Automatic annotation (TrEMBL):
One GO MF term attached to the UniProt entry: monooxygenase activity
Name under which the protein is recorded: Monooxygenase
Similarity field: Belongs to the paxM FAD-dependent monooxygenase family.
FAD-binding domain location: 28-356
Renumbered residue ranges of the record's region Disordered: 1-20
Keyword terms of this UniProt record: FAD, Flavoprotein, Monooxygenase, Oxidoreductase
Length: 447
């Protein structure tokens, strides 16, 4: 099987530009800070577009970290185009139905989970596994990835941009700050010192092997590991708990979001206490405590919030922030990683279209074409959380179903960038650049 659209191609999008250009054919040198999904995605697409790419990454060695991560169909179509479908699909969960219950365990909605949807697959899998595959794919394309690099300064001139990494000056045409939710690029490039704020919520998360933890032996939990992947959700006032099995029901991911005003920095490894976690579901459907208590350990991840930044790019438009560095997401959006990927892909396309002499126009056009879309996707995540946490007893069916809007999941970031670049760039050149504005209204869930 090779995805819905066949193997990756070198089709044009009717623009006269090759989707896969000869190596180093544009002469654009892209320096990327961070080898998360944003940085790797930007690197892969940049390589495909004929740019010269260098990634500078802080970690010293690649480790398969994290637990469950979601890539929507909008990201899936990009991975498939890169020829990664078979590998990604093999480790992804294949859920047919989303089963959402109230705290008493009454089924509120049994929502079909069509996959593919809007012509592409979604991938829900272990973050570390997908990350390792993407990392190795980038290397196989010849992307240079330097590990153990700590980028401490960013600079730009009229003709160049660069960083200081481990004390060494590295120069290129454009620098992409893809250094994640605790980005130093935010401060160094844009001057924002905004500390993350508590969103008022936190998540206990865990990923483990069902057989090792006896999930299959307990009559309250064995339903989730019966040889197929299942997605069960429970919602109550200010809480939602998602239990998601994968690998034919052999692995289980538990994610429970609850009220928490503690003020700590974001972390993926802050240990959580099981007794605190279980208190949240006291009096709930007993399957909840049974599933949660099977986890050998918990990560206590405080969900922080940041006000949207008025811009993601530097004054000279040769430094751009992408992914979590520019716009952190709530997990209920299920779009943080997908939007990070879209950012990098769109940026690579506009740099190809603009060429080496017009990098600042490309970067400004990129911000303009991405900004409102990303904000809408962020707001949708907030709407879903509120829909679940404030559900009324009579809410059932569509009133609590996970929205899957076509504007979000049917989007093709590469195609879109090819389609709109000329008109966006023309407007910038004719009228000057104005920072993008935020969308005025929160889209209703399901819009
Ligand atoms: C270890 C880890 C585990 C995660 N686990 C999950 C999970 O289980 N589920 C989930 O939904 N999301 C998880 N995330 C977050 C998720 O990957 C991101 O929200 C999303 O993929 C967007 O990615 P990003 O590339 O923008 O940021 P990130 O994935 O955070 O990547 C940023 C990269 O930049 C590097 N970096 C930071 N500072 C510097 C510097 N000064 N110089 C050079 N490099 C630097 C970091 O080491 C990191 O590799 C995790 C992130 C990390 C880093």
């Amino acid at each position: 099987m090779s995805g819905v659209n066949g193997a990756s191609s070198s089709d044009h999008h009717g623009t006269g530009f090759a989707q896969v250009a000869p190596p180093n054919s544009t002469g654009v040198k892209v320096i990327i800070v961070g080898a998360g999904f944003a940085g790797l995605g930007c690197a892969v697409e940049s390589k495909r577009k004929g740019h010269d790419v260098l990634i500078l990454e802080k970690f010293k060695e690649l480790k398969a970290l994290g637990d469950i991560i979601s890539f929507g169909n909008n990201a899936g179509r990009i991975f498939e185009r890169w020829g990664l479908h078979d590998k990604f699909w093999a480790v992804s969960s294949h859920v047919k139905t989303l089963m959402i219950h109230n705290a008493k365990g009454e089924l509120l909605v049994e929502q079909p989970n069509p996959d593919p949807l809007f012509g592409a697959y979604a991938y829900n899998a272990h973050r570390g596994e997908l990350h390792t595959m993407l990392f190795e794919y980038a290397q196989s394309l010849g992307v240079e990835i330097r590990l153990g690099q700590d980028v401490s300064e960013y600079w730009e001139t009229e003709t160049e941009a660069g960083v200081i990494s481990n004390g060494e000056r590295v120069a290129g045409d454009v620098v992409v700050g893809a250094d994640g939710v605790r980005s130093t690029a935010r401060t160094l490039v844009l001057g924002y010192e905004d500390k993350p704020k508590s969103s008022g919520y936190a998540v206990y998360r865990a990923w483990f092997d069902c057989a090792e933890q006896g999930v299959d032996k307990d009559p309250l939990t064995s339903f989730i590991c019966q040889g197929k992947d299942l997605f069960y959700g429970w919602i109550g006032p200010d809480v939602h708990f998602l239990a998601h099995s994968s690998r034919d029901g052999k692995k289980l991911a538990n994610v429970i979001t609850h009220k928490d005003d503690a003020d700590i920095a974001e972390s993926w490894s802050f240990p959580g206490k099981m007794e605190d976690c279980l208190k949240i579901v006291e009096g709930w459907d007993p399957r909840c405590a049974a599933l949660l208590s099977k986890a050998p350990s918990l990560v206590d991840w405080k969900l922080v919030y940041r006000d949207p930044m008025p811009t993601w790019i530097s004054p000279g438009a040769r430094l751009a922030l992408i992914g979590d560095a520019a716009h952190p997401f709530l997990p209920t959006s299920q779009q943080g990683a997908s939007q990070a990927l879209e950012d990098g892909v769109a940026l690579a396309v506009v740099l190809q279209l603009a060429g080496k002499k017009n990098v600042p126009t490309a970067v400004r056009a990129w911000e303009k074409m991405r900004y409102q879309r990303v904000r809408r996707a962020q707001l949708l995540g907030e709407s879903v959380r509120d829909m679940w946490h404030k559900a009324k007893p009579e809410d059932k069916g569509q009133a609590v179903a996970l929205p899957r809007p076509e504007w979000l999941l049917g989007h093709d970031a590469e195609k879109h960038a090819y389609e709109v670049y000329d008109s966006v760039a023309k407007e910038i050149l004719e009228k000057g650049y104005e920072r993008p504005t935020l969308p005025v209204a929160v889209p209703p869930v399901g819009a």
